TrEMBL record, chain A:
<feature type="signal peptide">
    <location>
        <begin position="1"/>
        <end position="19"/>
    </location>
</feature>
<dbReference type="InterPro" id="IPR013784">
    <property type="entry name" value="Carb-bd-like_fold"/>
</dbReference>
<feature type="domain" description="ER membrane protein complex subunit 7 beta-sandwich">
    <location>
        <begin position="46"/>
        <end position="157"/>
    </location>
</feature>
<dbReference type="InterPro" id="IPR019008">
    <property type="entry name" value="Beta_sandwich_EMC7"/>
</dbReference>
<dbReference type="GO" id="GO:0072546">
    <property type="term" value="C:EMC complex"/>
</dbReference>
<dbReference type="GO" id="GO:0030246">
    <property type="term" value="F:carbohydrate binding"/>
</dbReference>
<keyword id="KW-1133">Transmembrane helix</keyword>
<dbReference type="InterPro" id="IPR039163">
    <property type="entry name" value="EMC7"/>
</dbReference>
<feature type="transmembrane region" description="Helical">
    <location>
        <begin position="149"/>
        <end position="168"/>
    </location>
</feature>
Automatic annotation (TrEMBL), chain B:
<feature type="domain" description="EMC1 first beta-propeller">
    <location>
        <begin position="3"/>
        <end position="115"/>
    </location>
</feature>
<feature type="domain" description="ER membrane protein complex subunit 1 C-terminal">
    <location>
        <begin position="583"/>
        <end position="785"/>
    </location>
</feature>
<comment type="similarity">
    <text>Belongs to the EMC1 family.</text>
</comment>
<keyword id="KW-0325">Glycoprotein</keyword>
<keyword id="KW-0472">Membrane</keyword>
<keyword id="KW-0256">Endoplasmic reticulum</keyword>
<dbReference type="InterPro" id="IPR058545">
    <property type="entry name" value="Beta-prop_EMC1_1st"/>
</dbReference>
<dbReference type="InterPro" id="IPR011678">
    <property type="entry name" value="EMC1_C"/>
</dbReference>
<comment type="subunit">
    <text>Component of the ER membrane protein complex (EMC).</text>
</comment>
C-alpha cells in the first residue's frame, strides 16, 4: 500500500510538471481545454466495477465525465471559466473541488467554499478525488437495551406500584403505621374494583365459598 | 423525514428507463447475452436479452454535447457523442467501463451537422458530404484518434440532399425528371468506382415520383428502398433488385443473414389485420413461414427494426430475435413467429405531467355510503340494510382471517384502501392527449371553448397571458354573453420595468392546496395574519442590465386584478426555471454569478397583526386594495437543483416541506422552517430558527436514498387520505414514487410499534393485580385466624 502511494504521488508529481510545461498543449485548437484527475475508491468498494456507478459532474451535469479502469478521468472540450467538479456515487461522498481555467490556459484547483467565495485553499491539479465518507441515508433503529426497558413508562408503571405495595409495608416495621397503611390499601381495593375481583375470583376458583369469605373477612376487620 | 434501513422498498419504488431507442445492436461477442442500446435521451445502456432489464447504463449530457451520433458494437463498444467537437469513446461491453476516449473537432463547423459515422476495419470513418461538390472522407484510428494525415476528397457533383448512406456505399439519385440515374459509391475503397444505372431499370418512372431513397433498417447487406416500393441491394459493386416489392409503403424492411440464405423481413401495422411481419428468402424466392406473423390483437404503431439476429439450427428451423421500435417509444423483443418476449415502455422516460386519481371505493364501502344517501324508507328497511352490509363485512373479515382474499376479479382488485394511499397515476408522456374542457384565447383576443357545449359554464373566469420572451403579462376577464364567450382585457403589466425581459419561471397555486390557518402565533401571543389570496402568481424574470449584467426579478401579481403585491430582485444572477407557490409562501431559485453559487429565495406575504377581513368572509381580489407586508430571505443551496415542489396534504394541517430534485439524482426534503422568510428575525420568537446562509442538506433528508433518479425533470405531489402523508412522484429518466410525512406520521402507529411489548405489559399488569390481590387476601385470612 505504502509503495503504491509513493507511485501515485510520483505519478501525480510528474503529470503536474508535465502540465506546467505544456499548458498550451492542452488546448485543442478551439480554445477548449480539458480537466483531468483521478478518483480513488473507498477500500470497501467492489474493486471490479465501481467505475460504472461513479460519474464526474462538472457544474451539476453541464459536463459529464466517465471513469476509466484505473480511476482516471478527463473532461474534454471545456472553455475557460470556473467549474465545480464533483464525483457522484450513490453510496459514497466525495468533496467537490472548484477548478478555474484562466484565459492563458492556467489551471487552479481549490476547495469549494460557497459562503466565503474569496477564500482560496489550493489543492493539487490534476485532481485527486478521495472518498470522504460512506453516505448514511438511514436512521439507526434503537438497539434493545435493559436500561431502555426499565425506564420504559409502561414498565415503571408496573414496577412502581409493586414496590409501593410489597416493599413499603415491609420497610415500615412500625406496627401502628403498618395497620394504618393496610386499612388505607384495603379501602383503595374496595373502592376500585370490587366487582371485577369478584367476577375473576369466581371465574378462577369455581367456588362461591371464597368469594363470600373474603368480603366477610374484610368487613370483620373494619 | 428519514427512514430506517429496513424500510427500503416499503413505501417506494423506482423504475429505470433509457428513453426512445436510437441505435441498438446485439452483443454477440461477450458471453453474457445483451443488447446494447443508444437512445434519443443520450443514454448508452446494456439490456439483458432475456428480461429486458438494464444491466448497466451511462447517462450523457442532456444538451447537444451528449447526443449520440454512432453506436458500434464489436469487440468493444464504440460511441460518438456530441456535435462538433465530438467525443469518441470505447466501452467494455461486459462491465460498461470506459476503455478509451478522444476528442475530435471538425474545421468546418457549419457542415458538421451532415456528418455520417461508421466503423470499418478498426477505423472510425467520418463522411462529410458537401452538397453539389464533393465528399470528404476521413479515417481515424479507433483507439487513439490518429488519422494517417489525410482527408480524401471524392468529387461528387451529383451529391444532393436526398442521398442515403448504407455504409460504405453512398447512394444518390441524380439527373432530370424522367431520366434519373442511380449512383452509388464505395467511399472507403482506394479506387473510385461509381456504380451507375438508370433508375428506369428498377422502377417505372411514369408511375412514381422517382428518386425517393430510404435505407434499409440495420441490414446486414447495404441496401435501400426506392420510392417505398422497390428494394435494392448492393452486392459486388452492382445493384441487385429483390424479387418482391415492399408490401406496405410504411413497412420497415431489413435483410438478415439466416445461415446460407439471406432473408428480407418486413413489418408494418395494418389498420385491420394488426401487426404484420413477413419473411422472404432472397435466394430461393420463397416465403419463410415460421418467421411470419399476423396478429390482429397486437398493435405496434410504425414498427421499425432496430436489430435482428437469426440463426439456423440443425433442424432447418430459424431462431430469431427481433428488436422492434414503435412510434409510442415502446421497445419490443420478439422471436420468430412474432411472439413477444418482453416490452419496455420507454415513453415513461419522457413524462410531461402526471395526475393522481383516486380509486373507486369497494362494493361494501359503497353500500355503507349508500345507506346514508337514502333518506326515504322506513326504519325497518334501513335496519335490514344495515344488518345486510354488516353481514357482508363479517363474511369478508372471516375470509380474510382464513387467509383467503375476497373473491375478486381483476377490476375489483383496484379498490380504494382505508387511507386512500393507493392511487392510479395517469402519466402524460410527450406523445399524449389531454381531454378536458378547454378555453383558448387567440392571438387576436377571441375566445374558443372546447367543447362548445361548455361555453355557458364560463362565468367569472379570469385569464392571464404571459409573453415569455418580452416579459409582458396581460389579464383578461371572460364572460358569456348568451351567444359566445368574450374576453376583455383588464390589465397589462411589463415585468421587470421597461425594456425586454424574459420570464423564466411561473408559479401558481396547486388546485389541491388548502389553507389551514389564517395566521401564525408569535412569541408574544399575538397573531400575525397571513395574506391568503388564492389568485397569486409568481413570475421570475431575467433582464439584461447595463451595470450588473443580468438582474433576476421575482414579481408576485394578483392574476385577477393585476395588482403588484410583492417583488424582489437579485443583481448579477441568472434565473432558473424553478419556482413554487403555496398559501402565502413563494420560493424560487437563481444562480448568483457574482458568488458562483445557487441560491434559493423565499417570499412570504402577511396582512399584519390585524385581520383585514372578518372570519368566514371569502377573499375577493377586487375587495382588497391594501398591499401586504412582504418578508424576503435567500439561502445558499450547496447543490444543483432540477425540480422543485411543495408537499401537499389533505387539509394542510401537516407542515409544508419543499422537495428538490438534484442533478446528482437525489431528491431532498427541506422543511419550510429552514427556508422561512422570517427566519432570523429577532424578537424572541422561539419558533424561528436563527439565520444561517447555507442550507443544510443532510443525506438523511434524501427521499430516495441510493436509488438515484437520473436526470430529474419534475417532482409531483398529491395528498393522501391520511392527513400526515403526501404522495410524491419524481419523474425524469427514471420514475420514483414514495410517500412523505412532513410532520411525522402523527395519525398512524409507528411502523416499528411494539405490539408484543404492550400486550405483554398489559397481560403482566392484569396478572400482577389479581395475584397480589389473591395473596393479600390469603395473608389477611391468616392474620384473622391468629
Amino acid at each position: 500500500m505504502f509503495r503504491l502511494d509513493i507511485l501515485i504521488v510520483a505519478l501525480g508529481f510528474i503529470s503536474n510538471v508535465f502540465c506546467a510545461l505544456s499548458s498550451a498543449e492542452e488546448e485543442n485548437g478551439n480554445g477548449r481545454y480539458f480537466i483531468e484527475g483521478r478518483v480513488f475508491p473507498a477500500e470497501d468498494q467492489d474493486p471490479t466495477n465501481w467505475q460504472v456507478d461513479t460519474r464526474v459532474h462538472v457544474n451539476g451535469g453541464e459536463y459529464i465525465g466517465f471513469i476509466k479502469d484505473d480511476g482516471s478521468f478527463v473532461i474534454h472540450n471545456v472553455l475557460t471559466g470556473s467549474y465545480v467538479v464533483e464525483i457522484v456515487h450513490p453510496d459514497y461522498f466525495y468533496e467537490p473541488i472548484r477548478v478555474e481555467i484562466n484565459s492563458k490556459g492556467k489551471y487552479r484547483a481549490r476547495k469549494v467554499n460557497y459562503i466565503q467565495t474569496s477564500q482560496i485553499i489550493q489543492v493539487p491539479y490534476p485532481l485527486r478525488m478521495k472518498v470522504m465518507s460512506k453516505i448514511r441515508y438511514f436512521q439507526v433503529r434503537e438497539q434493545w437495551r435493559l436500561t431502555d426497558f426499565l425506564f420504559n413508562p409502561m414498565v415503571i408503571m408496573m414496577v412502581l406500584p409493586l414496590l409501593l405495595i410489597m416493599i413499603l409495608p415491609k420497610m415500615m416495621n412500625d406496627p401502628d403505621t403498618k395497620e394504618d397503611f393496610k386499612q388505607i390499601s384495603n379501602m383503595a381495593k374496595m373502592s376500585e374494583f370490587p366487582e371485577m375481583s369478584e367476577m375473576f375470583t369466581s371465574l378462577f376458583s369455581k367456588g362461591s365459598a371464597k368469594v363470600n369469605a373474603k368480603p366477610k373477612q374484610v368487613k370483620k376487620r373494619q | 423525514m428519514c427512514i430506517y434501513e429496513d424500510q427500503i422498498g416499503k413505501f417506494d419504488w423506482r423504475q429505470t428507463y433509457v428513453g426512445r431507442i436510437k441505435f441498438a445492436q446485439f452483443d454477440t461477442v461477450s458471453t453474457a447475452k445483451r443488447i446494447i442500446v443508444a437512445t434519443e435521451e443520450n443514454v448508452l445502456a446494456a439490456l439483458n436479452l432475456k428480461t429486458g432489464q438494464v444491466v448497466w447504463r451511462h447517462v450523457f449530457e442532456s444538451a447537444s454535447s451528449g447526443n449520440i451520433q454512432l453506436l458500434h458494437v464489436g469487440e468493444k463498444i464504440t460511441t460518438v457523442t456530441g456535435s462538433n467537437p465530438y467525443l469518441v469513446r470505447g466501452w467494455d461491453s461486459a462491465s460498461g467501463v470506459l476503455m478509451w476516449e478522444w476528442t475530435l473537432a471538425l474545421q468546418n463547423d457549419q457542415q458538421a451537422v451532415y456528418s455520417e459515422w461508421w466503423v470499418q476495419n478498426n477505423k472510425l470513418v467520418h463522411l462529410l458530404p458537401v452538397i453539389g461538390s464533393h465528399l470528404e472522407v476521413t479515417m481515424y484510428n479507433l483507439l487513439t484518434g490518429s488519422n494517417r494525415g489525410a482527408t480524401s476528397k471524392l468529387p461528387a457533383v451529383w451529391n444532393n440532399d436526398g442521398c442515403v448512406l448504407t455504409a460504405p456505399y453512398y447512394t444518390c439519385v441524380s439527373g432530370n425528371m424522367g431520366s434519373q440515374i442511380l449512383l452509388s459509391l464505395d467511399v472507403t475503397s482506394n479506387v473510385i468506382q461509381i456504380i451507375s444505372k438508370p433508375l428506369s431499370n428498377f422502377i417505372n418512372l411514369k408511375e412514381s415520383i422517382g428518386g425517393n431513397l430510404r435505407p434499409l433498417d440495420n441490414s446486414v447487406v447495404p441496401g435501400f428502398i426506392v420510392d417505398d416500393k422497390k428494394v435494392l441491394l448492393i452486392k459486388e459493386n452492382s445493384f441487385e433488385a429483390v424479387g418482391k416489392e415492399l408490401v406496405d409503403e410504411m413497412a420497415s424492411a431489413t435483410v438478415i443473414d439466416g445461415g446460407n440464405e439471406q432473408v428480407l423481413l418486413q413489418t408494418w401495422q395494418d389498420d385491420e389485420k394488426g401487426f404484420q411481419l413477413t419473411a422472404y428468402s432472397i435466394s430461393t424466392n420463397s416465403e419463410v413461414t415460421e418467421i411470419q406473423c399476423s396478429d390482429p390483437t397486437m398493435s405496434i404503431p410504425e414498427a421499425e427494426f432496430l436489430a435482428v439476429m437469426c440463426s439456423r439450427k440443425a433442424k432447418e428451423q430459424y431462431a430469431c430475435r427481433l428488436l422492434v421500435n414503435a412510434a409510442d417509444d415502446a421497445l419490443h423483443l420478439m422471436q420468430q413467429g412474432g411472439r413477444s418476449l418482453w416490452t419496455r415502455e420507454e415513453a415513461l422516460a419522457n413524462v410531461v405531467t402526471a395526475e393522481f386519481v383516486d380509486l373507486p371505493v369497494s362494493d361494501t364501502e359503497a353500500a355503507i355510503e349508500s345507506e346514508f344517501d337514502q333518506k326515504e324508507g322506513s326504519v325497518w328497511s334501513a335496519f335490514s340494510r344495515r344488518l345486510h352490509t354488516q353481514y357482508t363485512q363479517l363474511q369478508n373479515l372471516i375470509r380474510n382471517l382464513q387467509g383467503q382474499s375476497a373473491p375478486e376479479d381483476s377490476t375489483n382488485a383496484l379498490v380504494r384502501d382505508y387511507f386512500n394511499l393507493h392511487k392510479i397515476m395517469v402519466l402524460i408522456t410527450e406523445a399524449g392527449k389531454k381531454l378536458h374542457a378547454l378555453v383558448l384565447l387567440d392571438e387576436d383576443e377571441t375566445v374558443q371553448v372546447f367543447p362548445i357545449s361548455a361555453a355557458p359554464l364560463v362565468e367569472n373566469l379570469y385569464m392571464y397571458v404571459a409573453e415569455k420572451e418580452t416579459g409582458k403579462v396581460q389579464g383578461y376577464a371572460l364572460k358569456y354573453n348568451g351567444v359566445s364567450v368574450e374576453a376583455q382585457r383588464t390589465w397589462s403589466v411589463q415585468l421587470g420595468g421597461p425594456g425586454p425581459a424574459q420570464i423564466v419561471a411561473v408559479a401558481t397555486r396547486s388546485r389541491l392546496e388548502r389553507v389551514r390557518s389564517p395566521g401564525r402565533a408569535l412569541a408574544d401571543r399575538s397573531v400575525l395574519y397571513k395574506y391568503s389570496n388564492p389568485n397569486l402568481v409568481l413570475f421570475v424574470v431575467e433582464k439584461p442590465d447595463p451595470t450588473h449584467k443580468e438582474v433576476v426579478t421575482a414579481v408576485v401579481l394578483d392574476a385577477v386584478t393585476g395588482a403588484l403585491l410583492g417583488a424582489s430582485s437579485h443583481r448579477r444572477a441568472r434565473a432558473l426555471p424553478l419556482a413554487v407557490h403555496a398559501d402565502n409562501c413563494f420560493a424560487y431559485l437563481y444562480r448568483s454569478e457574482k458568488h458562483r453559487r445557487l441560491e434559493i429565495a423565499t417570499l412570504e406575504l402577511y396582512e399584519g397583526q390585524e385581520r383585514w377581513l372578518e372570519p368566514d368572509v371569502a377573499f375577493s381580489s377586487f375587495a382588497s386594495d391594501r398591499a401586504p407586508a412582504v418578508e424576503r430571505q435567500a439561502y445558499i443551496l450547496p447543490a444543483t437543483a432540477a425540480a422543485a415542489a411543495f408537499t401537499i396534504t389533505e387539509r394542510s394541517l401537516a407542515d409544508r416541506h419543499v422537495l428538490l430534485g438534484l442533478t446528482t439524482g437525489a431528491v431532498i426534503e427541506i422543511p419550510w422552517a429552514y427556508l422561512e422568510a422570517r427566519r432570523g428575525l429577532t424578537g424572541g420568537d422561539e419558533a424561528l430558527l436563527p439565520y444561517t446562509p447555507e442550507l443544510p442538506l443532510p443525506s438523511e433528508a434524501s427521499l430516495n436514498y441510493n436509488r438515484t433518479v437520473e436526470r430529474v425533470r419534475g417532482v409531483l405531489t398529491a395528498p393522501a387520505g391520511l392527513e400526515s402523508t403526501s404522495l410524491v412522484l419524481v419523474t425524469g429518466l427514471d420514475l420514483f414514487y414514495t410517500r412523505v410525512a412532513p410532520s411525522k406520521t402523527f395519525d398512524l402507529l409507528k411502523d416499528d410499534f411494539d405490539y408484543y411489548l404492550i400486550t405483554i405489559v398489559l397481560g403482566a399488569l392484569i396478572v400482577a393485580t389479581y395475584s397480589t390481590k389473591y395473596f393479600a387476601s390469603r395473608k389477611m385470612l391468616k392474620l384473622a385466624w391468629k
